[in-house]
Each structure stands twice: as structure tokens, then as C-alpha cells.
Amino acid sequence: MASHRRPKQPSRTRVSVLTATAAAAVALTSQAAQAAPKQDKKDVKEQVDRLYEEAEQATEKYNGAKEKQEKLEKQVGDLQDNVARGQEDLNKLRDSLGSMATAQYRTGGIDPSVQLLLSSDPDTYLDKASTLDQVTGKQAEALRKIADKQRTLKQQREEASTKLQDLADTRKALGEKKKDIQGKLTKARNLLNTLTAQERAKMAQQEKERANRSSSRVDLGSEVPDSQRAAAALAAAKTKIGSPYVWGATGPSSFDCSGLTGWAYQQAGVQLPRISQDQANAGTRIGRGELKPGDLVLFYGDLHHIGLYAGNGQVLHAPKPGAGVRFESMDNMPFQFGVRV
Question: How far is Cα of residue 169 from the mean position of the Cα atoms in its chain?
Fold first, then answer.
């Protein structure tokens, strides 16, 4: 027979032990959460700066691919125009040859010596025969021109096909580099979001103060530019102090590093290549001790950063995402060499 006894209730002592154990577990969990290492603000800034530098490297590669794409698009367009015009010329040559063949057929295809024997007026026939020889000569010339035009068209079509493939590959590379840049910038933003709002505001304020100091209190010394164009380029760049860094931008309201130097020299009447690595070959290379205001200055081993020497060891440049055009000590980056345009 089943028992109807009530289940035994846990003792008050047992309940107290369980409660104490649970409370201790909660306390330990809370302590562990508090003890979890919080990301150091300085460490976050270093990581963000490194990601910005990597994004700038990718930006110069993107700029190079974009420049190549623009050149290829023009080359492909020119080749396609040439092929279209060449095809029109070929069609005209063929039409001309067809007219000659039709005219010759109408005169009859009888052997010239037989026509001479049957002719009632040999003198008239000889005149006609002379004209026929001229027509045949024109036919031969037309055939030669057609063959030449066909060869040229074939070469142009093959070249256009190769350029189109290069263009497709370049567009793919452009997309990958753009994705790389955006990925690094997203990582940087995510890292910044690990900071509190107060910490982010403080970091932004420090960046702003740094920019203000660079624009209003920097000592550029008394060095003189080597040329009027260098002076004009530097003067133009100074008018853009505070303009934001935007990857791929060439002005006039925002810039990346080579976009700023290219825009500044354009105002001085000089067209520089698009990317920093190519701008490095836009003049005579010089050492640090030879620098004059307005000279280009290259940084990092792969030359992915460039600015304008401003005097007294200062560079005027578009430094990184989140920062505007400003003066900065050249000692903050690994200087490689200068270029006198």
C-alpha cells in the first residue's frame, strides 16, 4: 500500500547552507567579472593607430589600382573606337573592290588576245585593254589594302581583348582593396567602442588639441623654399589645414596623404603622379639635411606615406583617418628621403 506521508522538508540549517553557497558563488562571479582585465586605453589607441596605418597602406594600393583602371578604360575606349573606324574603312574598301569586279565582269571575261583577233577596230580595243590593265592594277592595290586593314583590325581586337581582361582583373583588385580598407577602419571603430564615452571624448579632445597646437604654435624656422613652385605648393597646402583625411580623396575639401601633395603641386602648375610610391620618383631624391620647404618627404619602408616639408623638422600632411591636415614632427614617423620636384 502506497505511503501517504508528506515528503520531508529540508532543515533550516540545510537551507541556510545552500543560500550561503549560492551567495558565495554570485559574489565570486561578480569578483571575477570585476577582475576581468579591462582593455587599457593606451593599448587601444596603439592598436587603432596601427590599423589606421595599415588602412593607409591599403589606400595607396587602392589609389594605384584606381589609376590603372582609369588608364585602361581610356585605352580600351580608344582601341574600340579605332576598331570601329577600321571596320568602316574595311567595308568601304570591300565595296570599292566589288564595284571594280562588277565593272570588269560587264566588259566580259574573254582572253585579251582572242578579243584582239575578233575586234573589228584593233586600235579601239587596245585603248580598252589599257584601261582594263589599270582597273586590274587598282584591284590588286585594293586587295592589298584590305589585307593590311584586316591584319591591323585583328591586332587591335586582340589588344582590346587583353586590355579588357586587365581591366576586369583591376576592377576585382580594386574591390578587394576597398574591402580591406573598410575592414580595417571597422576594426578600428570597434576597438574605439570598447572605451567608455568619456574615454572616447577625452581621446578626441587630445587629438583636437594636438591639431590646434600644430596649426597655431608650430615653429617652422626661417628656411626658404628652393623654387617658386615649391613655395606655391606649400602655401596651397597650408590653406587646407584642418581638412579631414578621407581615403582615396584628392581635394579640394578632403584628402589622403598623396591626394594632398598632388593637389598642392597642381595649384603650383605641376602634375604629380597619383600615389606616394610614384610621387617618390617625381624629382631628385635628397637627404634630410638638404630639405627645403615645399619638398616632398617620404615615410616608411614601402613609401606608403608622403607629405610636404614645412621647415624646422616639420611635415605638413594628411596623417590618418579621424585627423585633419596638420603640421607634425618628422620624428614621429620613419623618414626615408625627400624629393625635390
Answer: 14
Q: The pTM is what? A: 0.65
Catalytic residue among 93, 233, 257, 264: 257
Structure confidence by residue, pLDDT tens digits, 87-136: 888 888 777 766 655 655 555 554 454 454 445 565 665 565 555 555 56
Q: Which of 149, 292, 317, 320 is catalytic?
A: 317
Distance between CA atoms of residues 227 and 320, nearest Å: 29
- 3-state class (DSSP) for residue 152: helix
* Side-chain-side CA neighbours of residue 340 (13 Å): 14
**Side by side, which strands form the sheet with 296-299?**
284-286, 335-340, 296-299, 305-311, 314-317, 326-329
Q: How many CB atoms lie within 10 A of CB 258?
A: 31
One of 149, 163, 305, 320 is an active-site residue; which one?
A: 305
- If you compute the radius of gyration of the chain from its CA atoms, what whole number of angstroms results? 39
The rounded distance, in Å, linking the Cα atoms of 262 and 271 is: 7
The confidence band for 193, taking pLDDT boundaries of 50, 70 and 90, is confident
Grid cell, residue 62, equals: 587602392
Give the number of other CB atoms < 10 A from CB of residue 174: 18
304 a catalytic residue: no
Answer whether 296's CB lies under 8 Å from 237's CB.
no
